[in-house]
Amino acid sequence: MRFREMILGKYKKSIVLLLIIILLGTIIIAGSLGSAKISFSNIIKIIFAPITPAGIQNERLKETSRIIIWKIRLPRIILTVIAGMGLGVSGAVFQGIFRNPMANPYILGISSGAAFGVTLGMTMGLQITFLGIGAIPISAFIGAISASVVVYLISGGGRDILPLLLSGIAMGFLLSAMMSLLMYFNRSQLENIIYWTMGSFNAANWQKVGITAPVILPGSIFIILFSRDLNLIVLGEDSASSLGISVKKSRLTFLLISTIITASAVAVSGVIGFVGLIVPHAMRIITGPDHRTLIPYSMLGGAILLLISDTIARTIMAPTEIPVGIVTSLLGAPFFLFLLNRMRNPK
């Protein structure tokens, strides 16, 4: 048994607990940072006031602090955590299914589809709403799902990985070209479109949390529960079939759920790169290739990374906010280069 496996077997629960503690600590720190400084103790009191004794509830806390936490920061923090969880899980699934360390949640044209949907929605001036969600998130979700469905169909139903991968790349180029064409003829929307493609949570609210959480969280839990099947798929079609797994059915299920999770995250955040790429790799260094541990670790790691990135994005140049996609790219690009070098020189 290798040293890493010994350590993981002995401290598996401790590592999960540590990641949860880091996530909770990051949430509290993120809630305290911003244009208005709020102490850690006040944040905890404000968050837990509805379930604490009346004596604590009646402590005098500024009403402005309550509004800042409950109306502005907490919805954004929760939405960021949920989106980060979804991207981390999806990244681990796509890397496993494609058996490619360079795979990411956008590999089937999801990001290009979402960006094209948003571009089309903005240029057409759509004003539709659904359950409190505006036209732009709806356009992004529909665009992402539509692109993935087309990729799946033109690749022959996903029977083979290579046609699916190549179809996703081709669809990405096509949609990017169409998006550029729309931007060229609608220059008044150019700034808004570009800003969306950089990723941001500045429009976060409880309605978006209420729409996104019931999609991403159950989907992620389903993948965790059936991660053993993903392990068998990675071993190869013959090996998995001999163990009673329907590879094509299981692969389609994982791809479908991961695509919906990613589309939901992109719809509320814009295109945020590298989270689904670097988090599974970082967690794989700790857990190894076993998806039964890799996926829950990636879920927590994605939430932590994206929350840290978003906190940096909104505070480093406060009151000006920079797109969170810029921060994740600055963090992810060096890791990507390291990964490339490691693959070229495995020793």
Can you describe what's shown?
The chain is mainly alpha-helical and 347 residues long. It has a single domain (29-344), classed as ABC transporter involved in vitamin B12 uptake, BtuC. It is built from 15 helices and no strands.
Keywords summarizing the entry:
mainly alpha; 15 helices; globular; ABC transporter involved in vitamin B12 uptake, BtuC
Task: Break the fold down into its secondary structure elements and pairings.
Blueprint: H1 3-32, H2 40-48, H3 54-57, H4 63-98, H5 110-124, H6 135-154, H7 161-185, H8 190-198, H9 206-225, H10 227-235, H11 237-242, H12 247-269, H13 275-287, H14 291-315, H15 324-344
Helix pairs in contact: 1-14, 2-4, 4-9, 4-10, 4-12, 4-13, 4-14, 5-6, 5-7, 5-8, 6-7, 6-12, 9-12, 9-14, 13-14, 14-15
In short:
This protein has 15 helices and no strands. By secondary structure, it is an all-alpha fold.
Q: What is the fourth-level CATH superfamily?
A: ABC transporter involved in vitamin B12 uptake, BtuC
CATH topology: ABC transporter involved in vitamin B12 uptake, BtuC
Note poorly predicted spans: 54-58
Profile the largest sheet.
none
In which range does the helix fraction lie? over 70%
User: Which percent range describes the beta-strand content?
Assistant: under 5%
Give the termini separation: 21 Å
CATH class: Mainly Alpha
Total helix count?
15
